[in-house]
Amino acid sequence: MFLRWLKDYLGVTLGVILTAIALDAFLVPAKIAAGGLSGVATILYHLFQWPVGLVMLVLNVPLFIWSILRLGWRYTVNSIFGTVALSVFVDLLVPYIPVLTEDLLLASLYGGALMGIGLGLVFRFNSTTGGTELLAAILRTYVGINIGQLLFVIDGLVVIWAGLVFRSAELAMYALITIFLASWIIDLVIEGFNSAKAFMIITKRADAISKAIIKELDRSATAWKAKGMYSGGEQEVLISVVGRAEVTRLKKIVREEDPTAFIILANVHEVLGEGFKELTSPNQ
Predict the structure, then answer these.
(1) What is the pTM of this model?
(2) Nearest 5°: phi and psi at 104?
(3) Cα 95 to the chain's mean position, in Å?
(4) pLDDT in tens, 17-58
(5) Yes or no: is domain 196-268 CATH 3.30.70.120?
């Protein structure tokens, strides 16, 4: 239990450090307010020179109080460490992190990628950094709109505000690039990088295909009975998950064993279990 707790906190700490570097080295100097409270803090920093981390922390305090009252202590507590740590590291690292580029496109791309990795680690290790995510969760209890839609609206308003304050539509567009890139990378980090392919094979020769899969690919397959509603005939459906390098070989197996088979091929972001990544804990 202690080791799992320690692993969570180390993972969250690494995540907030990477996020802080993204803000200090790329986004804040370039005036890229990529949504959230960090975006608000970036605007206020350039208007009044207020420290970004301190502003983020101050803005989060009423959200924490509101969240405890509306959502309960248990929901809120997971956000406290990540929020405080991010605020501290953003201001703590400023003197030591150089501005790495003055090119807005590079700043939006690298800042978004680094922020995505950092926040992805924070979420993967069972924490958040508060901010607009917490606000969206609270507002959802009043309006009934899902969190993703509320986040889009809130982040959009921050981006528009930044564009008006800095009098630059370009900065707003670069901020959108950062948001989309960070969101995509967050999903990659949370879902995992060991992507694979899932085959769903509708066939009359399920036994022959499954035996070939086991023999030639050292993979397994699961079968169940099915009925074709157009033909009315009885068939079987096989499902098998393989690595990307094995896709062509599995297609060849199906084609050789049953040229009339119907194949559905889908991307799988993370596979846990025998033959793939070991299923050990929710954080793996």
Answers:
(1) 0.77
(2) -65, -40
(3) 29
(4) 999 999 999 999 999 999 889 999 999 999 999 999 999 999
(5) yes
